[in-house]
Amino acid sequence: MITVSDLSLSYQGAPLFSHVDLQFTRGNCYGIIGANGAGKSTFLKILSGQLEPTSGSVSILPKVRMSVLKQDQNAYDAYTVLDTVIMGNQTLYEIGREMNALYEKEDFTDEDGLRAADLQAEYAEMGGYEAESDASRILQGLGIGVDLHYNNMETLDARLKVKVLLAQALFGAPDILLLDEPTNNLDIAAVEWLNDFLLDYDGTVIVVSHDRHFLNTVCTHIVDIDYNQIKMYVGNYDFWYESSQLVQNLIKQQNKRNEDKIKELQEFISRFSANKSKSKQATARRKLLDKLTVQELPASSRRYPWVGFSPDREVGKDILFVTDVSKTVDGVKVLDKVSFIVG
Questions:
Q1: Which in 95, 261, 311, 334 has the greatest CB count within 10 A?
Q2: Number of domains present in the structure of the chain
Q3: Within the chain, which residues score under 50 in pLDDT?
Q4: What is the pTM (predicted TM-score) of this model?
Q5: Is residue 228 part of a domain?
Q6: Residue 195 DSSP symbol
Q7: Which of 1, 40, 302 is nearest to 180 (CA)?
Q8: What is the CA radius of gyration of the chain?
């Protein structure tokens, strides 16, 4: 559904990622991961058309509807909760508005009747008459009760607004879903409902998330942004992590073997290069040395936190000494010369 071709983006002259070639296909869920500042949300904006790349292109199949999780919680304050969700399919919402406006006209003409009939047919084909019930079902799944569905968005707190915007993105069976941190501010029940929704969804999902459990549950592929590159891996988060660690370890092991071999060859060449009887062997080893390389591991943008505490003195084996402790409460002796050591 989405093809990324030779895509590059630079920010203030520095490359964020370069020469990216990817394909996102129907029926798969792609989890975008990377360190803070690596460019995850930026890449999502390029895919949605909100941001232009420095070079390269993003192409989407014709007649494909894309839905993006909005981030502005106050953008829909003047609308009801249900209307906000239905706006997830803007074409459907506008048809409904125009149709209602025509039927409310006092001077309804024959031309208006023809236009209304066309709109009504299109509205029905798009599932417009089920729109409110579909929107209500999604809202309830995310934990927003029916009693709030006709309230204006401005009456909701930030936590509920986030859920409504997520419902808006999910509404109307879009072909492509772009979700930036969809589990933020969701309770456990809402996250579980979202997991089930995405597992049953047959379109293309591209999601940015730091939630490892969520990525393991819903993702068929992982898209890793690191080393100024974007690479796609088949499998969920844990499979990506194990695979990436395996590759890193294999490179390190090969480098260690090459370093040892280089040292051995250099010592032989240094020792026997002036020896006539060993000169041919020294020359052969020099040719072999020229072919050996140590692969440089690029610096990752990931920074793993570490907290360390340095004790002022060496930690003892015995933690607590209690010697001959006695205690009387209301004239009753509860402890009598108690002694013990906690080790």
A1: 95
A2: 2
A3: none
A4: 0.74
A5: yes
A6: H
A7: 40
A8: 32
